[in-house]
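2024-03-11 09:14:02 INFO receiving multi-entity request
2024-03-11 09:14:02 INFO entity count = two
2024-03-11 09:14:03 INFO echoing inputs for audit
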Amino acid sequence: MSIAATQKKGVGAFIWEYLTTVDHKKIAHLYLVAGGFFFLLGGLEALIIRIQLISPENDFITAGLYNEMITMHGTTMIFFAAMPILLGLMNAVMPLQIGARDVAFPFINSLGFWLFFFGGVMLNVSWFTGAPDAGWTAYAPLSTTSPGHGVDYYILGLQISGAGTLMGGINFLVTIVNMRAPGMTYMRMPLFTWTTFIASTLILFAFPALTVGLFLLMFDRMFGSAFFDVALGGNSIIWQHLFWIFGHPEVYILILPAFGIFSDIFPTFAKKRLFGYTAMVFATVLIAFLGFMVWAHHMFTVGMGPFANSIFAIATMAIAVPTGIKIFNWLLTLWGGSITINSAMLWSLAFIPSFTIGGMTGIMVAASVADYQYHDTYFVIAHFHYVIVGGVVFGILAALHYWWPKMFGRVLNEFMGKLAFWTFFIGFHLTFFIQHFLGLMGMPRRYWVFLEDQGLDTGNYISTIGAFFMTFGVLVFLYNAIYSWVKGEKAPADPWGGRTLEWAIPSPPPFYNFKQLPLVRGLDPLWIEKTEGNGKMTPAEPLGDIHMPNNSIIPFIMSLGFFIAGFGFIYQTDYNAAYILLFGGMAIALGSMLVRSLKDDHGYHITKEELEREAD
Amino acid sequence: MANNSNTSNLDSFQKQKNKDEMKKQLISFALMIGFTLIAFAIVASDVISDMFVVPVILLLAVIQVAFQFYYFMHMKDKDHEWPSIMIYGGVWAALLTIAGLVLVVWW
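2024-03-11 09:21:47 INFO inference complete, emitting structure
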């Protein structure tokens, strides 16, 4: 292996390696690239939405296309940009942070990625045949009666990628429970590992509700059932409940990993251990726990009655308590620290006020009585963009700058990092701050046009200008990423003076991560060795053979099978020939499962001699 | 487990334990079959009024689920804290869902 790794490989071999890889670091690259691509698509859709709204009664795009744009923007950004990029970061960093050589199930890790990828491709194929147009929440009966196949693509795309996400979540859970290095107790785990663990638990419990909801919707649309059809005795509100029972935990699936990222970045660049580590862990657990009891706050105006509304309003406001604990702990981590301000730190520092504004408007919309005023206006749009962009996207960008050297072996350019930050940060507040007021003035969300001289013209104009600033920031970051690949400086093992285990090994790490598993002596293990030891991790085991999994193309083929079957499901309502796709695709997928089950694959060993030959 | 196949003192202890475990498995299996038969019987025979049949069957179901978790899925054994936490977490999330739908949608 070591010899093969040093040889120059052709493009074909490079692609084949990535198609078949089961290495968590390479799967992380795949997640980041695919998620980044969908992020650009979603951003392009956002830009088109904002251009349409730049002036009153604009006709840049048609009303129908506008509905498709908002639906695809929301769906793409949540399911195919934010989630996979976070899963990519978890894949890249979490096993290193707990001192593991890979995740528990490398094959399933690969399968999870390819299912997500084909799900995303499936959804976006709909651009050629008519995209979904019922909003990213796909409320029934709008979604059950939407003509064409747009919503069918939405259902199948999310179903396929959702299965992949569920696998990823279970995989991370098993990894963290079973594969921590000697001495790495639960209360010594870095916060990003903790939040990965909690977010994976949320995935495990929340995604089944979406899966069930999507199946019911699929049966209603394709096989003539009537779960959501009031005329036939169904109930369309059930979809809203199922969607939000999944959808609210989903918000925490997105934001908790971002919290973990900031909790790792602040101590590193403040040169202080995280303030209130235990409180941070329990606040995370509490947010996750409460996150399952608040879903109906998305439905205050549905008519559940004052009693149900009050319960969900109070439960929602309770979440502000653990979140507030976290905000103060970050501030106190910074307090009196020796602070370095670089790109990663800028994103993290900007997150605190931005996210707090989002949290504050969150309390406002949680007040069920006041929500009747805010509901379905731009105030809600402003609120959730403040938490998702100001929280999750800032978190992702902070993490990319922070872990880029570890993931790709190159350091991102600081000047471009700061340029991207300032333009994006200013653009973000330009775009969304004004939308609070547009909403309060009564501008409804999801409307194609607004009328002249209703006090909405200037606000919308400013908002669109902000969107261009954000676009510029993203393009600078993109250029920075490519620049670092072509001529960026090589990264040392520990460019930031890190505290956690991932900085104890070379950048990028060797494919087996740790030659010998490290002995962990406390929280921030590398920092302990730097201050009390010799600066290196003490090995917890003698040098020995390392057992590695073999690469496999089966996850790719299996996911391709489901992808093909998805088209069969969509078009069997129109053409009998589509059954060929349906049964053919399922045959490929099930056949791949059979091959995987029957063929023993024991992996291979890197021998001790081979490890000794490799220079440190 | 693999080195327990030799005959020694430790092994006789292990053997006794395995035997006890097998006995428990068989008893719980027999009980579960019994519960299932009872459930079918009370529905088929009309000995209990319809209104009472549903809670009885639900009670039998809960007992069966407990057997499933604790005996067949070994939650009663040591080192099963994580599976217990996760299963009860899942039960909790499922109960919330059902309670939410029953109370809010149909009440």
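2024-03-11 09:21:48 INFO post-check: Chain B touches chain A through 13 residues (CB under 8 Å).
2024-03-11 09:21:48 INFO post-check: Chain B has two domains: 2-76, 78-107.
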